[in-house]
Specification:
The chain is mainly beta. The protein is about 10% helix and about 35% strand. The protein contains one helix and eleven strands; from the N terminus they run H-E-E-E-E-E-E-E-E-E-E-E. InterPro entries: CUB_dom, Sperma_CUB_dom_sf. This is CUB domain-containing protein.
Length: about 180
């Protein structure tokens, strides 16, 4: 009886671990796309993810990490923080660049830093009341789909966000 009970408990815990969304990670490429699990669909909550853009090996005197907020629909639990050092268990010289809220979510187009690391942190306990475009299961969009680049100089000015697209379509950044 005990061996079969232990096997059942093991099987249940294995299935629970499988259901957890894969999100976040460390990104060292010069450009890329970051998104919430299953974007534009809903994702399981509670969720806590960190996307770390690591530019320490691409740094020059005038290097900038730029996030283009092309499709940003979440306005709670999301923040962008720069760090001089960001290692497992050790974070140095952190400063919040943008803490997304109902007011600034529609106006922000970019986040940029000259530090070595930019960390995007998403921490939500529920999807209820945390997104811009959710209305009775009609045209629902959850989370975000953003692009980043590590480049010389400042951010490009030819960028768009959901406001530029009128919330009607997909806003692409064709350069990253």
């Amino acid at each position: 009886m005990w061996p079969s009970m232990l096997f059942f408990v093991y099987l249940c815990s294995f299935q629970q671990a499988e259901a957890k969304p894969r999100c976040g990670g460390i990104f060292t490429a010069a450009r890329g796309t970051l998104q919430t699990p299953g974007f534009p669909g809903p994702f399981p909550t509670p969720i806590h993810c960190e996307w770390v853009i690591d530019a320490q090996y691409l740094l020059t005197k005038n290097t900038t990490i730029v996030i283009y907020l092309t499709e940003l629909f979440v306005f709670e639990g999301l923040k962008f923080t720069e760090y001089q050092v960001y290692d497992e268990g050790f974070h140095f010289n952190g400063r919040d660049l943008l803490v997304v809220n109902e007011t600034n979510v529609i106006g922000a187009k970019t986040v940029e830093t000259h530090q070595s690391y930019l960390v995007i942190s998403l921490k939500l306990t529920t999807l209820d009341g945390t997104h811009l475009r959710v209305l009775d299961h009609f045209l629902n969009v959850f989370g975000f789909n953003v692009t980043y680049e590590i480049k010389e100089g400042a951010a490009r000015t030819d960028v768009c966000n959901m406001m530029d697209c009128g919330f009607n379509g997909i806003c692409y950044d064709h350069f990253t």
